[in-house]
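Moderator note: this is an archived Q&A kept for reference. The question asked for a predicted structure of one protein chain; the sequence and the answer are reproduced below.
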Amino acid sequence: MRIDLARYISVLSYIRARGTVQLGELARHYNVGVREMYSYLWTLYMLEIMDTSASYVSPFSLSLENVDPADDHPDPQMEISLDAHYIFDKADAFSTTLSFAELIALLATIDSLLYTAEPETADQLLALRAMLVSASVKAGYHDEMWPAPVIEGGRDVQRKIRSAIANRRYVTIEYWKAQGAGAASTTAYVIPLYIEAKEHPLLRAANAERELRTFRMDRISAVEISHKKLGIKAFGKLTVQAKRARPHFDGEEVRLYCDVDAAWLVETIPGAQAYRADDELMITLHAGSIEWLRTLAARIGPSLHRVEPQHIADALAANAATILQAYQDEA
């Protein structure tokens, strides 16, 4: 059974924080069966990675009593612990020192996972994050640290969305969309299908006409679950369609080369992606019209260096020239 990275990290953090914990307690905390939790622990128990000398080593020592991967009825009272001294005893074979770049990457990964993690998993991720930040501050990296994402408001949204998915219920969501320099809310009546874990997690859904829709989870501010329910077969068919289909945005893919301070675009435009290249930021997005793109370019201002492909840049320039001429004629 698949388990996401957030859950693996959270389980290890939970065990570490408590020293010794029983299998049944772990299963209850994460709301899964004892056998399922045992399979998670077995995966972690067998984990090995390659060190700098191309040897396989275990990054931690997970202690399980009477390990038997074929056991279908593990003892709920089995005690599990994480040997905190193991890594240090193995220091000659495996280094636990993180470079600054690795630390930043790990913190960013945890922050990304927080948006899709279930509450009990998120709590452990936040505890682990706090420990990493504390150690970093002590090492002199105070100015480089940033606060953890504020996800309290989103937890109720996630809980309701996950409940709607599990029970195949339609929902009414309040969704915020970029509008000019600000944002405006709108509502949508949809059947949630699944949440796709990305840098900005996406909700795949379908409307009442069963047309596929995509929403950014961090843009959903409220959820109301309805009594209307979709049948198992219809729900399964829509889910398969959504997973096979690429999110559709009308228009053409455009590349904007901007100053790095234009990263806010990725936060406001669904489907936009940013890539760092030297001192520039390349942002890819789908533009539905030249008029929309012109408005966006005006918002970016001097931070925008160039636009590709060339025919889009030419169309933008021609559009801007037409507007400028109209202003000059009025003057």
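Archived answer notes: Residues 84-96 have pLDDT under 50 and may be disordered.
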